[in-house]
Amino acid sequence: MTSEEAIIAGGCFWCTEAVFNDVTGVTGVESGFIGGSVDNPTYKQVCSGSTGHAEAVRVTYDPAQLSYADILDMFMGTHDPTQLNRQGNDVGTQYRSAIFPLDDVQRTEAEAAITRWNAEHPGQAAVTTIEGPATWYPAEDYHQEYWQGEGQRNPYCLAVIPPKLMKLRKSFAERVKG
After folding, report:
1. CB–CB of 7/136 below 8 Å?
2. CA pair distance 178, 116, nearest whole angstrom
3. Closest among 8, 143, 160, 9 to 88, alpha carbons compared
4. Nearest Cα to Cα of residue 97 among 21, 8, 31
5. Domain ranges of the chain
């Protein structure tokens, strides 16, 4: 099986990771940081807003089951791409809506995904940026698979993740793991 990767930032990486872990064809999701000016940033540094990084996820997927365009449409449909530098109560550039294409083909697809969103949601323009190239830094181990463990007891996660999963199941039911 071949695999491809997509890097997207849509607010809290725990929340985005939880969504993509439920998608058929996704073989891995890693939480991390991208788009900033500090090498090997820590979660604490990124949360301060001083590094320029975004909390993001790197999604590994099987292109025979899922396209990059599918990933981007699910990304746009499960967070609020109209909020500048925030998602809900998370405020700052570290929570921006951004796509980090890995090549020119992905950059073209990212532009098309934003155009699709804007066409389907008149009056609700996406502020999602297309950034990069940029270096990916994995988050500390305790952030990985967070929803499957500690997140199920975290009040923040319990308030934010289930509505995102409901959006996924409602709008992309054919893509949800069974």
Report:
1. yes
2. 27
3. 160
4. 8
5. 4-175
Angle among Cα 165, 171, 177 to the nearest 5 degrees reads: 55
The residue to which tokens 């064809």 are assigned: 25
- Ramachandran sector of residue 29 (left: φ over 0; alpha: ψ -120 to 50; beta: rest): beta
* Res 178: pLDDT: 79
Backbone angles phi, psi at 119, to 5 degrees: -70, -35
Beta strands in 69-163 (DSSP E): 86-87, 90-91, 97-99, 129-130, 136-138
Pull the structure tokens for residue 55: 């909390």
What is the predicted pLDDT for the residue at 30? 98
Average pLDDT, the chain: 96
- What is the per-residue pLDDT for 1? 77
Cβ atoms of 33 and 76 closer than 8 Å: no
pLDDT beneath 50: ranges in the chain: none
pTM: 0.96
Superfamily of 4-175 according to CATH: Peptide methionine sulphoxide reductase MsrA (3.30.1060.10)
Q: Which residues are catalytic?
A: 12
